[in-house]
Amino acid sequence: MFKVTPNPPESDSTTPSDAAERVPSFADIKATPRTPSTLFAVSPEATSETLMAYLVETLASVDVMVHHLVDLLDGGARNALLGISNSVMLAEITANRVLDQLDPRE
């Protein structure tokens, strides 16, 4: 029978002291400047109303997806997902309220 994976090395060249030397300290981590990723960025020209409308639509979409999954589950997992759905609904109501304050309808 052919073995797909090779055998592990005879001796472990990594000792605990070597591993501890490679771990950066908290000061090193804090000193490293943070460079934000531009892969997913929100346009600085986007208005608050536009952002809130997008937020409301995203929350509504998440709620629909959660309700589709609820039908597939039973027991504790179903109850947890219903709790997540409730939290999403509350966030959607809050976002709608902020949107109403940004653009009051008469």
What does this protein structure show overall?
The chain is mostly helical and 106 residues long. It has a domain of 59 residues. It is 60% helix and 0% strand. The protein has four helices and no strands. α3 packs antiparallel against α4. The chain starts with 15 loop residues before the first helix and ends with a helix.
Descriptive tags:
single chain, 106 residues
In short:
This protein has helices at 16-22, 26-31, 48-70, 75-102. The chain has 106 residues and is mostly helical.
* Topology order in helix (H) and strand (E) letters: HHHH
Distance between the termini: 78 Å
Number of helices: 4
What oligomeric arrangement do these chains adopt? single chain
Helix proportion range: 55-70%
Poorly predicted runs:
none
Strand content: under 5%
Describe the sheet with the most strands.
none
Give Rg in angstroms: 25 Å
Number of DSSP E strands: 0
Shape: flat
Structural class: mainly alpha
Residue-averaged pLDDT: 83
